[in-house]
Design a protein that fits this description.
Layout lengths: L1 H10 L1 H15 L4 H37 L8 E3 L2 H9 L7 H14 L5 E3 L6 H14 L2 H30 L4 E2 L6 H14 L12 H8 L5 H15 L4 H43 L6 E3 L9 H20 L5 E2 L7 H5 L2 H4 L4 H32 L10 E3 L7 H10 L2 H29 L1
Parallel strand pairs: 1-5, 1-6, 2-4, 3-4
Helix pairs in contact: 2-3, 3-10, 3-11, 3-12, 4-6, 5-7, 6-7, 6-15, 6-16, 7-8, 7-16, 7-17, 10-11, 10-12, 11-12, 12-15, 16-17
Length: 445
């Protein structure tokens, strides 16, 4: 089982998800040719998304680091990024159990009516594996680690159900939800912040959606031109050469144009399968709407998400240098900021200003949690034989090392059986309450 999980982690989502989609399409009795084509298109879409996001992080990240390196502050915990975190999670003692445990929890919740999501994004089960890994280290008990995975899965599925109406209204996706361990906790934060923003005079009247900006500012409100301006602005602040500034501007503009189109390619393959799967599941669960759980990579192409992510790269680095007590140096996971914002954007209805301000506020606890979880993550990395970057002694990540959900589960794990059992009960109650809320909301629509 452990070797199988390692093989899966090495394949990555661009290969694993198309295989799952192909099998699912065959179960739904789609013609083999159509099932195969849909699976390949989805794989191509994921490769394209990863390439574009990698391009964004590769040009914006170094420029942003240039902006803050003169501060003289030294941060000694290195953000090694989500790929390393996933490898550490799946390489842990409970990592191999994450997929069967998570799938079993999902099926039980479906049977008992506690969720409306069937999560087929198996590769991203590493998020619950990470929760299990850190609790196993805290308690030195694999059983508690498995319990942590159960709790994480319940909460992530519940948040996927809760966020689906916002996804449907903003993106128009009717048959899919997003039980993604990175994005879902920030959805709750966005709900709280949006409520606060609505109470601030003046700020609550500010309409800053991409559509309104383009209408108000003409060509300068166009998402491509906004990307160009943001890129040039960061390049100037970083003190780059003229050629580097121009290259940065054009690159960010390209990302603003290309990423939504790459997402459209992915959706071309996904939607027929998702629609068919939803119909099949409704036959198995009559009278209930069942959603197919997917990766929030599908959502990161929103212009608001891209534009806000570009601005948040230097902001996040700046926060890292000025926040007292923070020791985390953001690095690899700067490229994952679009995933952090993916479920915040629909809550803010695409308002660029709210998304930037909300994202800035969200990064403050993210950096502190990344610092707090660094000792456990460093120990976990050593236990699985993770190769540390040159000069790195302590490591962390913004994903999931800076995520509030693993931190809450870790805190409960410190009280062992009492803490984890209490959190499990709260998670089940939370799932029940949200399920009733979602059902009532959908019936009223």
């Amino acid at each position: 089982m452990g070797n199988l999980i390692h093989d899966i982690i090495n394949l990555g989502p661009s290969v694993v998800l198309p295989i799952v989609i192909f099998i699912l399409a065959l179960i739904m009795r789609l013609p083999v040719s159509k099932a195969f084509r849909a699976a390949v298109i989805i794989g191509v879409g994921f490769v394209g998304i990863n390439l574009v996001i990698g391009l964004l992080g590769g040009v914006v990240g170094p420029a942003a680091q240039q902006m803050v390196q003169h501060s003289g502050v030294h941060l000694n915990i290195l953000d090694v990024g989500w790929p390393s975190t996933a490898a550490i999670a799946y390489g842990s003692a409970v990592g191999a159990l994450a997929i069967p445990v998570g799938l079993a929890v999902d099926l039980l919740m479906l049977i008992f009516g506690l969720t409306t999501t069937l999560d087929i994004d198996f590769w991203n089960y590493w998020h619950i594996a990470f929760a299990g890994a850190i609790v196993t280290i805290v308690t030195t008990n694999i059983g508690y680690g498995i319990l942590a995975e159960v709790i994480a899965m319940i909460i992530v599925l519940t948040l996927a159900d809760w966020s689906q109406p916002w996804v449907k209204r903003y993106f128009g996706y009717d048959n899919i939800s997003f039980p993604h361990g990175t994005s879902t906790p920030y959805f709750v934060m966005a709900l709280i912040l949006d409520w606060v923003f609505d109470k601030i005079p003046g700020f609550n009247k500010l309409d800053a959606s991409p559509e309104s900006l383009q209408k108000r500012f003409g060509i300068f409100g166009d998402s491509m031109i906004m990307g160009l301006i943001f890129g040039l602005f960061i390049g100037v602040l970083a003190g780059e050469s003229v050629s580097s500034i121009l290259t940065l501007g054009i690159t960010v503009a390209a990302v603003m144009v290309i990423l939504p189109r790459v997402v459209a390619i992915l959706m071309e393959g996904l939607m027929p399968v998702a629609d068919g799967a939803s119909e099949l599941l409704q036959k198995r669960f009559p009278g209930r709407k069942i959603y197919i759980g997917m990766d929030t990579a599908i959502l990161v192409g929103a212009p608001t998400t891209i534009a806000s992510s570009v601005i948040l790269v230097p902001i996040t680095l700046g926060l890292a240098f000025i926040l007292p007590g923070n020791r985390t140096l953001p690095f690899i996971d700067l490229a994952t900021i679009p995933f952090i914002l993916a479920l915040m954007t629909p809550v803010f209805k695409g308002n660029v200003v709210r998304t930037i301000v909300g994202g800035t506020i969200a990064m403050i606890p993210t950096l502190y949690i990344a610092t707090a979880l660094s000792p456990i993550m460093t120990l976990a990395a050593r236990q699985v034989g993770f190769k540390f970057p040159a000069g790195a002694v302590d490591i962390t990540s913004l994903v999931d090392g800076g995520n509030v959900l693993p931190w809450i589960i870790r805190e409960a794990g410190q009280f062992r059986a009492i803490g984890l059992t209490a959190l499990l009960v709260l998670a089940v109650v939370f799932a029940y309450v949200v399920r009733r809320f979602v059902t009532t909301r959908q019936d009223a629509q």
